[in-house]
Amino acid sequence: MGTYKLTAYEKNGELITEETFTAENDDLAKEKGLAMLTDKNLLEQTHRLASPAGKLLLFHS
């Protein structure tokens, strides 16, 4: 299990949310991250999901 970090920002750079969660692998983390963004209606906001190794799994600007 790894710890993943999801962040979302306003267009002006203001932080909307910053959450960490665990997942068994990158694919499951991407699914969980997309679900979290969908639940919070943040898919169209600037966001990123980073793996424990620092790899960007999701990114939207």
Q: Give a short account of the largest sheet.
A: 4 strands, antiparallel
Spatial order of the strands forming the largest sheet:
2-1-3-4
The helix-and-strand class reads: alpha+beta
Number of domains: 1
Helix content: 10-25%
Characterize the overall form: globular
Q: Termini separation (Å)?
A: 28 Å
General description of the model:
This protein is α+β, with helices and mostly antiparallel strands. It has one domain. It has one helix at 26-39, and strands at 2-9, 15-23, 46-50, 56-60. It has a four-stranded antiparallel β-sheet with strand order 2-1-3-4, with helices on one face. Strand 3 and strand 4 (56-60) form a beta hairpin. It is globular, with a radius of gyration of 11 Å. The model has no long low-confidence stretch (mean pLDDT 97).
